[in-house]
Design a protein that fits this description.
By secondary structure, the protein is mostly helical. The chain contains three helices and no strands. The protein has helices spanning 2-54, 60-85, 89-100.
């Protein structure tokens, strides 16, 4: 009985580095995925702000409309980011609905 316990303990110790490495790899992949999503969001927001600032007109009504077009286009781009990187099905569905509308 002691022999089986010793063999089991040795097997567990031998497998521990591989399990730890796999967990570290999964954590690293998750971090990379999150970083990619963050970068995509940042790009969408920066593009939206740049386009909103350049969409200008002397007429305040027209200026408002031009800026809102860019603002909502930015929302569509952000919806694309969540479609690509998101995990929550409800959020992805909400983003798709918003982009469709």
């Amino acid at each position: 009985m002691k022999t089986i316990a010793i063999i089991a303990a040795a097997a567990a110790l031998a497998a521990a580095p591989a399990v730890a490495q796999q967990a570290q790899h999964q954590g690293h992949a998750s971090m990379q995925h999150g970083q990619m999503a963050k970068q995509d969001y940042m790009k969408a927001v920066q593009d939206m702000h740049q386009k909103m600032m350049s969409a200008d007109d002397m007429d305040p009504d027209r200026a408002f409309a031009l800026k809102m077009i860019q603002h909502h286009q930015g929302g569509i781009e952000m919806a694309r980011v969540v479609q690509q990187h998101g995990d929550d099905a409800e959020i992805k569905q909400m983003a798709q609905k918003m982009a469709d509308e």
